[in-house]
Every structure is written in structure tokens, then in C-alpha cells.
Amino acid sequence: MTIYYSLTFLLLAAEMVTFTGLVVPFPFAIRKRVFTFLSESPIVAKIAYGIKISFIFVGILFFDALQRMFRITAEADLAKNNQQGMGDVRTETSFAARKFYAQRNVYLTGFTLFLSLVLTRTFAINLDLIHSQEEYAKLKKASPSSGSGKHNIEKKAREYDSLKAKFDSQTKEYNQLADKYNKATGGKADKKKD
Questions:
Q1: In angstroms, rounded to a whole number, what is the distance separating the alpha carbons of residues 165 and 180?
Q2: Can you give the pLDDT at residue 147?
Q3: pTM of the prediction?
Q4: Tens digit of pLDDT for each residue in 16-49?
């Protein structure tokens, strides 16, 4: 493997370790400190900038490896169709090895690029989760300390119960009056509508 594919493999391994570190369930205090450091540190920002530049090179390697894989596959198909030189075992092995290396390079660079997108999104989701948990903690602290909020909720619950009771009594009274009306008219009102 050439030096740039070896470096790409090391980058992929570092991404896998980083992803594992991002999804490990740490306590909230530790997670908050780590993510705050990672998102606000100027040193980490410079390292991230350098890594973004390296992903541009990995993207170039990906398209080069993809082009090489298509070219080798086309050459192998052409050689099989023409049957020129494919009778030799060494030639077949050479084509198979070249095809394998081209596919390996495509997968290596493709997975590295894909995992970079996954890492970026996972980091953003974790930051959003931390901010949401902080907001939730602030709201939770604010609601018990304000007794008026709890008092308002209880008052509204009582008002709701009294309105529901009034509604139920009015519904019963309406049904009784409707039954009396139907008995008095003999149900003629319903027949006139038909």
C-alpha cells in the first residue's frame, strides 16, 4: 500500500476511535466539559481545519481510485471478451490483484469520507443534546422555585373541573328537555324533517 493510502487508513482508524469516544455514554458533567473544550478550543479548531484539508485530498484519492477501478474492470472485461492473453494464469492473477487493490482503495477512501460526515453529524447532535439538557435543567430549577406556577396549574385544574361539571349538568338538563319535548309533540318534529 502506498504512503497516502497508509495515511488514509490511519485517518480511518482515528475516525473509528473518535466515533467510539463520541458515542460512549459518559456522565453529563464529563460529556459537557469534553464537548465544550472540543467546540471552543482554538487548538482543536486548527487541528479540525487541517483535517478538513486532508479530507479534500482523500476526496481526490476517492475519485482517482474509483476511476482506476472502472478502468481496470473495463480492461478485464475487454480481455475476457477478446480472450487475448487471459489463457495465462499469471495474467488472470494480475488482473484480479489489480482489481482487488483498486476496489480496496475505493472502499478505504469512501469509508473514510463517509465516516467523516457521520462524525460531524454525531458531534453536532451531541452538542444539541448537551444544550437541550442544560435548558431542561434550567427550566426544572425555575419551575419548583416559582410556587405561583404550581398554584396557577392547580387553579386551572379546579376551573376545568368546575366547567366540566357545569357542562355535564347542562347536557343532562338538555337531554331531559329534549325528551319532554319529543313526548309532548309525539315525535312530529322528527317526521316533518323527513
A1: 23
A2: 58
A3: 0.64
A4: 999 999 899 889 889 999 998 988 999 999 999 9
Contact 86, 56 (CB under 8 A): no
SS (H, E, C) the chain: CCHHHHHHHHHHHHHHHHHHHHHCCCCHHHHHHHHHHHHHCHHHHHHHHHHHHHHHHHHHHHHHHHHHHHHHHHHHHHHHHHCCCCCCHHHHHHHHHHHHHHHHHHHHHHHHHHHHHHHHHHHHHHHHHHHHHHHHHHHHHHHHHCHHHHHHHHHHHHHHHHHHHHHHHHHHHHHHHHHHHHHHHCCHHHHHHC
- Average pLDDT rounded to a whole number, residues 74-93: 75
